[in-house]
Design goal:
Blueprint: E1 3-8, H1 11-29, E2 34-39, H2 42-48, H3 63-70, E3 77-80, H4 88-100, H5 115-127, H6 133-136, E4 141-144, H7 147-155, E5 170-172, E6 184-187, E7 192-200, E8 205-214, E9 219-225, H8 227-244, E10 247-250, H9 260-272, H10 274-286, H11 294-302, H12 308-321, E11 327-329, E12 334-335, H13 345-354, E13 358-360, E14 366-372, H14 379-392, E15 405-407, E16 422-424, E17 429-434, E18 440-446, E19 451-457, H15 459-476, E20 480-483, H16 489-501, E21 512-515, H17 517-529, E22 535-538, H18 540-555, E23 562-566, E24 572-576, H19 583-592, H20 600-617, H21 620-638, H22 652-669, H23 674-689, H24 691-700, H25 716-723, H26 727-734
Parallel strand pairs: 1-2, 1-3, 3-24, 5-14, 10-14, 15-22, 20-21, 20-22
Antiparallel strand pairs: 4-15, 4-23, 6-9, 7-8, 7-17, 9-19, 11-12, 13-14, 16-19, 17-18, 23-24
The structure holds NADPH dihydro-nicotinamide-adenine-dinucleotide phosphate (NDP), 2-oxoglutaric acid (AKG) and magnesium ion (MG).
Magnesium ion (MG) binds near residues 346, 544, 548 and 578.
């Protein structure tokens, strides 16, 4: 029986699922598809790994582990919605909520005291940060804005902040001592097992990693971020921001880069509040206060210590006197340094660029900003974009081209798979990567406090990535640019492989270039402005950055992206959109009963998932479902039925109604499947006749607060009812 997995996740997408999934199940059931859900929400992922703390009834399956296995199987057809990548503060909130609901799971041990606590922390650390996507992504990434989405943006351009050549906004990044500067890389001639060893100045050795199996042809790289250089850089930028009268704003990816980036974030907090840390460092240590979890968590802990009020006053004074901080929420006084996962670079930098290069100050007004991106590996794509906007003005969504991406992602490629090989170095010495024969493959001199890391990328994913790039260039006739820097150690190895594997494909007549990220940005932007399309073919980090940057400029949000992961073993993973889980949307829903989440990404993912299933099974009816969904999505865009941002106007639920109406209409009007035509004629008529009544019932459900009894594990019954408030609509769906 054809089977599609639809993931249950968190926050806004999880709310939307309650409304959309019953519709999808009713429609697809007509062709015999089994649409199964798998719960990979943060709450479920926590409960799944602590069966020994739960009653039999409370225990649940480890759905993520199952899906990880499935992703390696040709049968896989998975629709993956965005999920929370939890920072430590979020993880702790989720744990507390579950405990208050009667799940006797252990608290997060910040400072594990014994082996048992260490083991518990180990389990939680696997759930922390971006723990879902890397498990499922057994393939490379193909993300693009479908034609209908681009046409919609051209006809209904989103707001775009104007740019002035006088803007004082800019990017600050390190000139030396960072990950980029210290990178070393090699390609393995034969398979081996490596270990990573720190040899301290006194000659003693600490084994950081043991017995890591590497394949022949695999590229590895290792590098180190100098703590001294980082601290000096941060100090300097805070001074600069203050002198220039611009906002200081740090942009990291503490969720995905879950080991290195919280440490860097913590250093920014420490440097900003240097006097406070100097004076009260001991108190902080005694009370287990770490700057890595952000200012909010620090302030919360101060409530519980005797001179907490005094320290708080000093913190406030420091904020007053320091450079103005960019704000996450001006009304609530939440700064850029409050929570490590509040400002996530892939979304935050494009949002700033779309907003004339400004972020919000404490008065809630837009102000020029110094965007601080410590490591210089990729920072120049943003500085080049800012320079371009200063020179040419903002991009025009009605005329600009598009930049699809082919991303090297499979099997935890590059930096996004480096967490288990990232270490905060405890003492001066050298770190060596040593192979099974005892040869030293890579070596760095290090100092205490430095962050050392190693990345891997296997050969098979690289071959698959090159093939995918050529096939997208061929399918679209669009130039494809490999964003690789011939002066960067890792990229030098990768360029060799690209040059080896490109001739395996027919590239005649195709324009395929290799340019450094800086040159690629400049080349792509000037084409983009002139309405020309350019495929970016990039590594994993740039895949992430570029698939928010261009969509946000082109179509207003990355939620409208088609995001396909052709799995290397033949299955399909269809991600919905390229953005996140929009926590702000949940807040609006619980206070006003209006959900502004746009499910377009889900509609697009479902269409390609159905297409994949049709191809696999040869089932013509499933193909008709896919084609008609495509028609419906196009009509949905043409008629502008996306959710409004304002209460008492069409919201997520109303947008689902319109998609259903158009899908049923397209099924009723097609002739390829008489079975579906007969079935959906009736459905379409019922929906059409009852449109006013259904819309009225949906609007009536808005305007007041909705208590969903939780954030990470809301009450499922309340949620289901709240997201399906139209009896008339439900009746029609239940009758299909
Ligand atoms: N694939 C995944 O699983 C991903 C997960 N994440 C996770 O999501 C969370 C939030 O991340 P954050 O970086 O703030 O990014 P989000 O993409 O959630 O939010 C940024 C803004 O984009 C707009 N937006 C995003 N998606 C939609 C949508 N479907 N409909 C309408 N508007 C949308 C909203 O703007 P507006 O205010 O205009 O409505 C939103 O506030 C984090 O936990 C992060 O780790 C992030 C990226 C990918
Ligand atoms: O997995 C995550 O935390 C975020 C992933 C992401 O931002 C992306 O793939 O675009
Ligand atoms: Mg992203």
């Amino acid at each position: 029986m054809p089977k599609i997995i639809y993931t249950k996740t968190d926050e806004a997408p999880a709310l939307a699922t309650q409304s959309f999934l019953p519709i999808v199940q009713a429609f697809t059931n007509t062709t015999g598809i089994k649409m199964e859900t798998k719960d990979i929400s943060l709450a479920a992922r926590i409960l799944a790994v602590f069966p020994d703390f739960l009653t039999k009834e409370q225990q649940i399956e480890d759905a993520l582990a199952e899906l990880g296995e499935l992703a390696k199987n040709p049968e896989a057809n998975i629709i993956k919605l965005p999920n929370i990548s939890a920072s430590i503060p979020q993880l702790k909130e989720a744990i507390e909520e579950l405990q208050s609901k009667g799940y006797a799971i252990p608290s997060y041990p910040d400072d594990p005291k014994d082996a048992k606590e260490k083991e518990i922390k180990g389990r939680y650390d696997k759930i922390k940060g971006s723990a879902v996507n890397p498990v499922l992504r057994e393939g490379n990434s193909d993300r693009r804005a479908p034609k209908a989405v681009k046409n919609y943006a051209k006809a209904n351009p989103h707001s775009m902040g104007a740019w002035s050549p006088d803007s004082k906004s800019q990017v600050a990044t390190m000139a030396s001592g960072d990950f980029k500067a210290n990178e070393k890389s090699i390609t393995l001639e034969k398979a081996t097992n490596i270990s990573v060893v720190l040899t301290k100045e006194d000659g003693s050795k600490e084994v950081l990693k043991e017995n890591l199996a590497l394949l022949q042809g695999e590229i590895i790289d290792a590098t180190v971020m100098s703590n001294k250089a980082l601290l000096a850089f941060l100090q300097e930028q805070m001074k600069e921001a203050k002198a220039a009268g611009v906002l200081f704003s740090l942009h990291m990816k503490a969720t995905m880069m879950k080991v290195s980036d919280p440490i860097i974030f913590g250093h920014a907090v420490e440097v900003f509040f240097a006097d406070v840390f100097k004076k009260y460092g001991k108190v902080f240590e005694e009370n287990g206060i770490s700057p890595n979890n952000g200012l909010e968590s620090l302030l919360n802990k101060l409530d519980k210590i005797s001179n907490g009020a005094e320290i708080k006053a000093e913190i406030e004074k420091t904020i007053e006197n320091g450079p103005a901080l960019a704000m996450v929420n001006s009304d609530k006084g939440i700064t850029n340094l409050h929570v490590p996962s509040d400002v996530i670079i892939d979304a935050s930098m494009p949002a700033m660029i779309r907003n004339s290069g400004k972020m919000w100050n404490k008065e809630g007004k837009a102000q020029d900003t110094l965007a601080v991106i410590p490591d210089s590996s990729y920072a120049e794509i943003y500085s080049a974009t800012i320079d371009f906007c200063k020179k040419h003005g903002a991009f025009d969504p009605t005329t600009m081209g598009t930049v699809p991406n082919v991303g090297l992602m499979a099997q935890k490629a590059e930096e996004y798979g480096s967490h288990d090989k990232t270490f905060e170095i405890t003492s001066n010495g050298k770190v060596q990567v040593i192979d099974a024969d005892g040869s030293i493959l890579i070596e760095h001199n290090v100092e205490a406090g430095d962050i050392w890391r190693m990345c891997q990328v296997k050969d098979a994913p690289i071959q698959d990535w090159v093939k995918l790039a050529v096939s997208r260039a061929r399918a679209t006739g669009t130039p494809a640019v490999f964003w690789l820097d011939e002066e960067r150690a890792h990229d030098i190895e990768l360029i060799k492989k690209v040059n080896t594997y490109l001739p395996n494909h027919d590239t005649s007549g195709l324009e395929i270039l290799i340019l450094s990220p800086l040159k690629a940005t400049e080349y792509t932007l000037s084409r983009l402005k002139d309405g020309k399309d350019t495929i970016s073919v990039s590594g994993n980090v740039l895949r992430d950055y570029l698939t928010d940057l261009f969509p946000i400029l082109e179509v207003g949000t990355s939620a409208k992206m088609l995001s396909i992961v052709p799995l290397m073993n033949g299955g399909g993973l269809f991600e919905t959109g390229a953005g996140g889980s929009a926590p702000k949307h949940v807040e609006q829903f619980t206070t006003e009963g209006h959900l502004r989440w746009d499910s377009l990404g889900e509609f697009l993912a479902l269409e390609v998932s159905l297409e994949h299933e049709a191809e696999k099974t040869g089932n013509k009816d499933i193909l008709v479902l896919a084609e008609t969904l495509g028609d419906a999505t196009e009509k949905f865009l043409l008629n502008d039925k996306s959710p409004s941002r304002k209460v008492n106007e069409l919201d997520n639920r109303g947008s689902h109604f319109y998609l259903t109406l158009y899908w049923a209409e397209a099924l009723a009007n097609q002739t390829k499947s008489p079975m579906l035509q007969t079935k959906f004629k009736e459905v379409y008529n019922a929906l059409k006749e009852n449109t006013d009544k259904i819309l009225e019932e949906l609007i009536n459900a808005q305007g007041s607060n909705v208590n969903i009894e939780g954030y990470y594990l809301p009450n499922p019954t309340i949620l289901a009812e709240a997201m399906r408030p139209s009896k008339t609509f439900n009746g029609i769906i239940n009758n299909i």
